[in-house]
Amino acid sequence: MKGVDTRELIERAFADVPYPGDNRISKDPPCGESVDVAEYFRGTSWREHSIDELQKQQSALSFFSPEALQYFLPGYMIASLGHWREADLIPSSILYKWLPGKDDETEVMRQYRIERMAIFSSAQRAAIAAYLREYEASDDQYGEEEEISIAIARLLNEETATRG
Description:
Blueprint: H1 2-14, H2 33-41, H3 51-56, H4 60-63, H5 66-80, H6 84-87, H7 90-96, H8 107-118, H9 122-137, H10 145-157
């Protein structure tokens, strides 16, 4: 079964990612929703959240610090893998993290996006690409085939990872 292989790939790729620390869950400076995100995820493991809980916290993917995104992302991917409808916008949120910035993107946003994505290793990028392939093959993606192809190409070809 494809999902099992992808799940194992995700688990192996992210197995050694350390918890970011209670004060490194949300981006700095914490404000508004990022404070709520930090409070919800503080002291938890990426392995302990249900699809229902993560669906309610899908906006957290935009508020995590780079370290927290790297740590909690596998939980989002594994929980939603094969449960695309229940996951609602989680797969799309993950997908759009890997697309190029818009032409009118500010320099601050560009740097923020680069910083958040540079932390992922090549093995982690391959696991994310496998997850996106599963999403692409489902009947539940929202006509995002072109975006998925672009994201997968970027995941597998960009050399911005800071670790192996």
